[in-house]
Design a protein that fits this description.
four-stranded antiparallel sheet, conserved putative lor/sdh protein from methanococcus maripaludis s2 fold, Helix Hairpins, six-stranded antiparallel β-barrel, elongated, alpha+beta, Elongation Factor Tu (Ef-tu), domain 3, single chain
Length: 342
């Protein structure tokens, strides 16, 4: 019986030794690695495309009446306010036309007063059967005719005033004078351009966007328009819902957040990706796929393939920022291997 107990004890000790040896062997075979979280190694690539600051209004102001250019008080480069006088045409003929129309109106008003008086008399005589109905109707027709002339003459006066007002050309918005086309003393015909102005305040940034950049642009939050004069914060207003049939791109328009660049400025539109990217040097190829090794809760290496990853380029990731990625030692491991974390 004593001999049996010794045998059992020896067997137990042997099994315990083997178990310890096995654990030691597994630990010894574990690959030593270091790791970092995705948040620690993630990068946010910057994209850029050529862009231009454009004024929303680039207008040529033309003459609406025929007259001689009398005063041209603005010069190229001047900044003018809305309703400020830009050109004064000779308005003497139009003042005379207005005066003529007003005098004609007074004559019509006198005729209308007389016609109304004659109608009142005719009504009185008609009640006394002193005139015929035909004569009464004739008086009524005369009043209506003169009333129509009176209304027409008021329209003529309004038109004369409008033509007179067209002799003074004012700025339709806060503007910059960029070109003087007419000169003092020239006869301006209806429709002939006199000067060109651009809107000084309503300026947007225009950029041509390729299809592959649209998604990242729509997700980005911070944009900058960079020129030789400086950088300007801008906000995405709209990506046009149509492709340019020739260049096969789409136009994106941006509003200035604070300070504005000069109209016509050329530069680049820059933005950072909002989605985290895994650096290209962190990618490892296994089984014909590019991906990363991460550490699961059991100190095992797990290979995760990254969709659409390309050799030598950062890869977009949708993994949580807290996931631990094996940085050093990843080339010596395979999926499912035990690792020792330094």
């Amino acid at each position: 019986m004593l001999k049996l107990n010794k045998t059992i004890l020896l067997s137990t000790l042997l099994l315990s030794s083997l178990s310890s040896l096995s654990s030691y062997t597994v630990h010894a075979d574990a690959v030593r690695v270091t790791s970092q979280t995705l948040s620690e190694i993630a990068i946010f690539p910057e994209s850029s495309v050529p862009a231009t600051a454009l004024s929303l209004n680039n207008a040529k102001l033309s003459a609406e009446v025929q007259a001689t250019v009398k005063v041209f008080p603005v010069l190229v480069g001047d900044i003018v306010k809305r309703n400020e006088v830009l050109i004064q045409l000779d308005d003497r003929n139009y003042k005379l036309n207005l005066l003529k129309a007003e005098v004609a109106l007074k004559g019509i008003e006198s005729r209308l007063s007389l016609a109304k008086y004659q109608l009142e008399q005719a009504n009185t005589l008609s009640k006394e059967k002193a005139i015929s109905n035909e004569h009464l109707e004739q008086r009524k027709a005369e009043v209506n005719t003169v009333k129509a002339e009176h209304s027409a003459q008021k329209v003529a006066i309004a038109m004369a005033k409008k033509d007179l007002g067209k002799c003074t050309i004012t700025a339709p918005f806060d503007a910059i004078i960029v070109e003087r086309i007419a000169q003092v003393g020239e006869l301006a015909s209806i429709g002939s351009p006199l000067l060109r102005i651009i809107d000084a305040t309503r300026i947007e940034v225009s950029a041509k966007i390729q299809s592959q950049d649209i998604a990242s642009m729509q997700q980005a939050k911070n944009f900058q328009f960079v020129t030789q004069d400086g950088s300007y914060d801008v906000q995405l207003r709209k990506i046009t819902p149509a492709f340019d049939p020739i260049q096969r791109n789409r136009e994106a328009r941006f509003l200035f957040s604070k300070e504005r660049a000069l109209s016509g400025s050329n530069g680049t539109l820059q933005w950072k990706q909002s989605q985290p990217y895994i650096p290209a040097n962190m990618l490892t190829r296994r089984g014909g796929q590019l991906g990363i090794f991460v550490i699961n809760g059991e100190n095992l290496a797990e290979f995760i393939a990254i969709k659409k990853a390309q050799e030598g380029r950062p890869a977009a990731s949708e993994l949580p920022g807290s996931i631990r990625i094996i940085v050093n030692g990843r080339f010596a491991i395979q999926d499912g291997m035990t690792v020792s974390i330094d």
